[in-house]
Amino acid sequence: xxxxxxxxxxxxxxSGLGVSxxxxxxxxxxLVPAWVDPVSSYxxxxxxxxxxxxxxxxxxxxxxxxxxxxxxxxxxSGADAGLVRKLLDGHLTRVExxxxxxxxxxxxxxxxLDQRENAMTSRRPLDAAQLSCSAPSLAAAFDAVRxxxxxxxxxxxxxxxxxxxxxxxxxxxxxxxxxxAVATTGAAGHEGAPRVQAVVPTQLxxxxxxxxxxxxxxxxxxxxxxxxxEAGDRQVxxxxxxxxxxxxxxxxxxxxxxxxxxxxTSTATGxxxxxxxxxxxxxxxxxxxxPVRTEExxxxxxxxxxxRGDDTVTLRGDGDDDPDQVALNRRYLLDALTAGDRDRxxxxxGAPTAPVVIRRPGDDGAYSLLMPVRLxx
Length: 377
Description:
Helix content is 32%, strand content 30%. The protein is an alpha+beta fold. The chain folds into three domains: 2-87, Multidrug-efflux Transporter Regulator, Chain: A, Domain 2; 128-248, DNA Polymerase III, subunit A, domain 2 (DNA Polymerase III, Chain A, domain 2, Roll), CATH 3.10.150.10; 253-370, DNA Polymerase III, subunit A, domain 2 (DNA Polymerase III, Chain A, domain 2, Roll).
């Protein structure tokens, strides 16, 4: 039978859907394989199902809801194409209406921005500051936030690391909208404006990190739109991305209390959030081998986490409908565990729609936030 069938890998390759997406559509009853091996549970598809998979891929790229996709697939081969035409026309009408509404709102927002910019009679003078930092501490701060830098060419201000020099602290921040990483290192000899910010582009940030390969102190200068890092007789300098980095402090949850625990227990923070200390290696293994769900329409693998009554974090599989479980992009969570760089880390949970915070126990200077993904019913 297998010789007459196409494997899930072949269907994925030829349709452009991806293996994880095909598994999702099987579970959702949208594109069910013709045969599933009862021993290995491997999915096999009939030759004619490739056309259905390609049609499904087109409909999902057009962001058609799954409920409508089911009807389109069920009616596509029928003699009467009336229902299919109505579904396609109806979806196109909704998309055009949404686009029109979006254009209207964005036009109003741009008008407000224009008024605000025109009201500025002169440009604020560029700030400048110089400070000294421990090379190992600054290197660790770069490592803690680098994974969260955006790669979106449409948002250049996020394609770098924010250096926020404030008094005796230097904050490093990176975000790609779906995750946020913050690390703080001490600064000495701060001279110049009391608070200066600069967004260092990714390539320059990596060059700065490479310079931090030793002990001792380095000198950092933020001068207008240029940043310079000096380590002994070596130097790295370059231009900044520009201004407009979001106010990251408004994105942070309340700090809560009791950030340090020595065992795998959970604590209430007094802000409606719950903290659990976990073994990093054990959680990583569970994420790499445990159950996943597929995010639609992007096809990303999700890990669904739940804090149980015995204060352990478990991964939930399909069919587990728990209102308190939290779904996260699995790759993003693994990246955050690596950046945490500790044998044990604290996971802080709030509501299922609130960011999950990953902290180093006893260290409030470095942490990351991951935005949850809404699970469809």
